[in-house]
């Protein structure tokens, strides 16, 4: 629950136009689609023996910054070159601050 509250309060500040700092490699861009994702962290999968994943396999959990949808991918797939570190989407008032 605490992680969800932290996520919502951080993005509330972004929506309000406040500057928020994020850890290095917190945002990633899918190279083919260009979609920006917020990396939530890593998790372990618990699944039956006949599942395509291994029980207790570590996966990356990430969220689409546009629609908030959560995704999970094997660590090896997440770091195989299809994603690259990215910056969060610039705030609308960032451009005016740089000009003035």
Class by alpha and beta content: alpha+beta
From the alpha-carbon coordinates, what is the Rg to the nearest angstrom? 16 Å
Physical arrangement of strands within the biggest beta sheet = 4-3-2-1-5
Kindly, what is the distance between the CA atoms of the first and last residues, rounded to a whole number of angstroms?
Answer: 40 Å
Please state the overall shape, judged from the principal axes of the Cα atoms: elongated
Query: What is the name of the CATH class of the domain at 22-89?
Result: Mainly Beta
What's the helix-strand series? Answer: HEEEEHEH
Summarize the structure in short.
This protein has 100 residues and is of the alpha+beta class. It contains 3 helices and 5 strands; from the N terminus they run H-E-E-E-E-H-E-H. The protein has helices at residues 2-15, 75-78, 92-99, and strands at residues 27-30, 36-44, 58-64, 70-74, 83-86.
């Amino acid at each position: 629950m605490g992680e969800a509250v932290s996520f919502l309060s951080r993005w509330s500040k972004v929506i309000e136009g406040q500057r928020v700092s994020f850890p290095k490699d917190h945002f990633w861009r899918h190279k083919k689609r260009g979609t920006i994702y917020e990396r939530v962290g890593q998790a372990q999968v618990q699944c039956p023996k006949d599942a395509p994943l291994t029980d207790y396999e570590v996966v990356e959990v990430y969220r689409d910054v546009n629609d908030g949808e959560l995704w999970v991918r094997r660590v090896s797939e997440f770091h195989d070159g299809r994603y690259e570190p990215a910056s969060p989407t610039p705030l609308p008032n960032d451009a005016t601050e740089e000009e003035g």
